[in-house]
Amino acid sequence: MDYTNETQAQKDVRMKWFREAKFGMFIHWGIYSVPGGEYKNDKGYGEWLLEQSKMPVSEYAKYAQQFDPEKFNAKAWVKVAKDAGIKYIVITSKHHDGFGMYRSKLTDWCIKSTPFKRDPLKELAAACKDAGIRFCLYHSIMDWHSPLYTPRRAYNDTATGTPDMNEYQRYLHGQLKELLTNYGPLGLVWFDGGWEDSWVNHKEYSKNLYNVCRNLQPNIIVNDRVANGYGDYGTPEQTIPGVMSPNPWESCMTMNDHWGFNKNDQNWKSSTQLVRNLIDCNSKGGNYLLNVGPTPEGEIPQPSIERLEKMGKWLSINKDAIFGTTAGPFRNIPWGRCTQKEVKGSTILYLHVFDWPANGKLVLPGLKSPIERAYLLTDPARKSIASEPSPAGAFLHLPAKGTNESSTTVVAILKGKPEFQDEVINQAPDGTFVIDATDARTHGDTIKIENKDKRDNIGYWLNDNEYAEWFLRADKPGNFAVMAEIASTDDSECEFVIGGKSFKVAVGKTGSYDTFETRKIGVITISGPGKQSLQVKPVKSTWRPINLRTITLKPE
Ligand code: FHN
Fold first, then answer.
1. 384 CA from centroid of ligand 1 (Å)
2. Counting atoms of ligand 1 from 1, which one is nearest the CA of 138?
3. What is the pTM of this model?
4. Could you tell me which residues are beta bridge partners of residue 137?
5. What is the pLDDT confidence band of residue 451, given thresholds at 50, 70 and 90?
6. Is the peptide bond before 151 cis (omega within 30 degrees of 0)?
7. 267 alpha carbon to ligand 1 midpoint, in Å?
8. CA-closest residue to ligand 1 atom 5
9. Residue 444: which pLDDT band, with cuts at 50, 70 and 90?
10. What is d(CA 417, CA 369) in angstroms, rounded to the nearest whole number?
11. CA 315, CA 319: separation in Å to the nearest integer?
């Protein structure tokens, strides 16, 4: 059966658990963990050891002979996840090295060829079932070991015969049949490595693989890395999109700098950053898939456990502000994030305050709706927090300090759905427009508003098809000098588009993305009065990323 034509309603039913899950655990575990990232004089390896070192596969195979994770305890792993508030686990059944972390009948290049005589995926699937956590698998399309896979690696000294991707496709389907038949109902399959021409040039490979999974388990979810436009959800990696997306997505991220175990990598993200990443994803309608790279002995590294324990503690107190919520209604909040729930004709806003305002005033940008009630989520007495309207949006008078260094949740209850002021930038009496990154509408998946030194700037402006937009109301049209507060490592060019006219301006470098300077970068004309869009777009031929804080238009 071809499942690629299902209705949106059918897909929504299938995606329901995923949208509600909010938080998953990624597990990258394989024979690459044996050397702990070290090979010859390099200590920076992870799961890409084989490809990056170019060692012969016959040499790499020695790690299989050494892989005997005697301390592996699936129940212990699942407890770490459960206590952290995690709802699904995605573990590598096969990474790019082609090594099966399960007892496959289709190849000996799998856990059968190690001293470890058990099936870790079988044990983990059972532990997940007992704990009520969805068991999911990561499976690589790219395979550096299989003699059938194209392109065959030069270092693959164990491969014989002629590569044949049609045959490889059948092998891959066989692996998925084993996995989707013998390990119980799976939540999702996380494909990866479908970026080489041998796969990308065959759209039918992706469609076939998607349908193999859905026909084996019709309710299973398949990520978008099955490639070629197929798949059920987006998978931004090591980044969190700048804006909310109506389509399901999940940001996957490492806790240090490696997916696979690297014993020398102690660059761990703080638990505060991890909590804020989870909130950030959920505030934009996405999930957070946080990675652990277990040791060759079968243990989750202690720094990972410590951070997951702290995340679990925060979540146990703030669970209502995460689970059961949807993306918040604000485009950009400088002090934190927002999630929301609609209940019985009211809207509950969960305001996740990262940066507690020194003056106690928390502005909800552009919110016109009156706040019926507000209190700290963790306050059992629900002591009322005063609020009042303002031209910038409703604001709350908060107590002197928050209750959690990672994020304090303030609850604000509105009648009905949130209403916002007409977000237009008006002309000051002296004719100037002060246009701030905070008020920008960003268009694109990568461009986003970030906060540096407690100032918002448009950043991650990597793609020349992504742009920023504001709405101005001009009472006094005319010519305006463009003063821009920017930071960039390279000279760049962008164009200002307003009133159907385009004005190209040169943006000189400042030396770094953190060195902001204000400069006159050109002159634009606003031809007529009234509300109009101002778009700032890259000039494709000369674009280099810039960070933009403010634009001031001064009458010439
Ligand atoms: O190459 C892989 C990498 O090893 C890791 O598995 C990540 C996780 O999302 N995916 C690929 C890189 O995008």
1. 47
2. 6
3. 0.88
4. 91, 189
5. confident
6. yes
7. 18
8. 259
9. confident
10. 8
11. 5
